[in-house]
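[SOLVED] Need 3D model of a two-part complex

Original post:
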Amino acid sequence: MKKRLLLVIALSFALCCLGTSAMAAKTIKIGGLFDITGGTGSVGTPYAEGVRDYVRYVNENGGINGMQIDLLDVDYSYKIPQALAAYKKFKNAGVVAIMGWGTGDTEAMAPIVTKDHIPYMSASYSEHLTNPAVTPYNFMVGTTYADQGRVALKYIADTWTDKSRKPRVALIYNDTGFGRSPFFDVDYQGHHFPAAESYAKEVGVEIVDTPVIGLRALDATPQLLSMSKNNPDFAIVQETSVMATILKDAKKLGLTTKFFALNWAMSENILKLAGEAAEGCYWTNPFAVWTDDAPGVAKAREISEKYHPGVKQIVNYFQGYTAMLVMSEAISRIEGEVTGEKIKDALENMKDFDTGGLTVPITFTKDSHKGSLGLRIYQVKSGELQRVTDIITVKR
Amino acid sequence: MSANICGDYKTSYKEDMVLFQTTFSKFWIIAFVLALYVVPLFLGNYVLYVANMICIAVIGALGINILTGFTGQISLGHGAFIGIGAYTSGYLTMKLGVPFIVALPAAGVVTALFGMVFGIPSLRLKGLYLAIATLAAQFIIEYLMVHLEPITNGVLGLLVDYPSVFGFSFDTDLKYFYLTVSIAILATLYAKNLIRTRPGRAFIAIRDRYISAEVMGVNLFKYKLMAFGISSFLAGIAGSLWAHYVTIITPEHFTIGVSIEYLAMIIIGGLGHLIGAIYGAIFMVLLPEVLRLMSESMSGQFPMIVNMFAAIKEGIFGAIIIGFLVYEPDGLAHRWQMIKAYWKLWPFSY
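Solution:
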C-alpha cells in the first residue's frame, strides 16, 4: 500500500515537472514591479492595471507568436529594498524582461539588470536612464522628466509678456530620486545629466525657490508660505497625488502662483480631488487621455471596457498600457527563442512605432533610449483638461 | 546520553556557566550547525536570498537584544545604526579601495562609536525618554545619509560590490550565505559568552534594578555605554553585510520602519533571550515573504483581488504581531521553553 502511494506521488511529481517544462517553452516570463500600496500607489494602481490588462488581452488573443505572457506581479510599496527582493525572485524565475515602476529603484537596479541582460521598462522617465552608455538595458516610453521640465520652462519663457523682469519660477519636488530627477543636474555613474535648473538660465527664467514636499504629505502650507515670500510667478511640480493638497493649500493661502504639473502630478483624479483649486493649472503630458480620439486610444478603451465595465480610466492607465504595448511589440519582432539581448536589439531597432495616438511614434536607437520625444501641454479650464499646445517635440 | 534531570538542577556555579547545558543539546546544536553548512547546497537562489536576509537580521537582532533585552535600554535608532555600518563599509570599499576584510570590522567600529555617542544621554534618560533620544538619533542619521552627498551619494544611492577576500569573491547567493551564516554563528557565540561574563551580568543587573546594580558596584555609565557600543558594533556588521549583499544602498533602506522592525523582532522572539533574537529574525523576515507569496499566487487567477490583498497585507502583518503580543508576550523563545517543558514532564505535567 505504502509503496503504491509513493509511486503515485513520484509519478504525479514527474508529471508536474514535465508539465511545467512543457509550459515553460510556450510562455514568456515578464516581471511586473508595481506600487499598489506605497507612496505613489494612487498612480501606481491604474498603471499596473494598464499593464495587466494589455497582457490579458494579448494572452486571450493567442499570445505573442503563439507564446503566452506570464506576468509575475509584485507590489513593492515604493521601497527600494523590497524592489531588490522582488528582482531576485524575478531573476530566479527566469524573466526575460521587467516592467518596473519608480525612479529610485529603477536607477538602483540599472547596473544589476545590465549585468544580467534583462531589459527594464519602467514608469520612471528619469533622464538618467536614457543614455545606453550608462544604462544599456533601460528603456522608457514617456518623455523624460527633465525634458518635461524644459518644455515647461520654455513655455513660461515664451509666453512671458512683462519685459521689465524675468519670470520667477519655483521648483517643488520630493526628496527622492523621482523628485529630484527633473530639476537638478546630476553626475550619475560618471556621466553628466543636465536638468531644468541649468536650462532655466539658458532661456532666461529665474529659479527663486526649491521647496521640498514629501510624497505622503497631508499639508503643504508651511512650504507654500515660505515659497510665497519669494513671490514666484510659476511653480513646476514633480509630485503624485500630493499635488491635490498643494493646489488646495495654495488656494487657501491665496497664492497667485500658476502651477505647472509634470506628468505624474496631474490626472483626472487630481482634478476631482482638488476641485476648483486646480483651475488654471498646467500639465505636461506625453500620453493620451480617455477622451482622445485616436485608434490606439479607442482600442485601449475597448479593452478596459471589457475587463472593467463602466470604469473611466485615468491617464496613468494609458501609461502602463502603452509601456506593455511597446514591450509586446518588441517581443513580437523576435524570431526564435526570446532572450533579454534579443528584446534589447528589437527595441533598439524600433523606429517610429505607431502606438495609435497613445503617444507620439516611439523610436529607440542604439544611442538613445528616449522612446517618446513629443508631449502636449494641457490646462485645467472650467474643470476639464484642455490642450493648450499642439505636440511639442524635444531634442533627443 | 544520561537521563535528563527535570528542570534546572545544578549544584555548582560552574555547572550553571556551561555553554551547552546537556550533551543532548550539544549534539543537536552541532548537528544543526552542520546542517546549516550542508543543506544550502541543495537550495534555490530565492530560498538562499531569504536565508541570507535572516542571517543578517540575526546579527542585527542580537545587537538590539543585548541593548534592549539584556540592558533594558530601549532603542529606536537601530535601523540608522545599521545604515551607518552599510555606508561605512560601502564608502571604504568603493571610494577608498579598502579590502572587505578590513572594511567589515571597520564598519562595526565606526558604528560602535556613533552608537556610544548617542548612548551618552542614556545615563540620565530611561525608558520612554531614552526611546525618544534614540529616535532623534534615527532622524539625525537619516538626514545625514541624504545630505552628506560626498560620502553617501544622497538619494541616488551608493553602489557597492560583492565582497571579495584574498581574491575569492562572494558573488553568488550560496557563497554569500556561507559568509553570513558564519558571521551569524560567531555573533551568536559572542553574545552567548558575553552574557555569561562580568559585563553581561552587569547588563542584566542594570536592566533588573539599576539602583541595586549601582549599590553593588556596577559602574552604570561604563556598562550602559558598553551595551550601546556592543549593540551598535553588531548593527554595523549587519549593515556592512547587507550593503555588500544588496549591492546598492540608499537612505530608504534605513528608515524608522527598519528600527521598529528590529525592535519587533526581539519582542516577538523574546526579550532577553539570545535564541529569541534568532526566532524573531526568522519570523520577521519570513512573514512578509510568505504574505507576498500568498498575494502573488493569487495574482494569476484573481488579478482583481491582488490590489485589495496588497492593501490588507500590511494589516495582516500588524494583526499577527498584535496577536503575538497578546497571546505570547514573552516571545517565541518562551513558547519554545514551554513546549520543551511539556515534553520533559509528560505525562506528569504537575
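Edit: Residues 15-25 of chain A have pLDDT under 50 and may be disordered.
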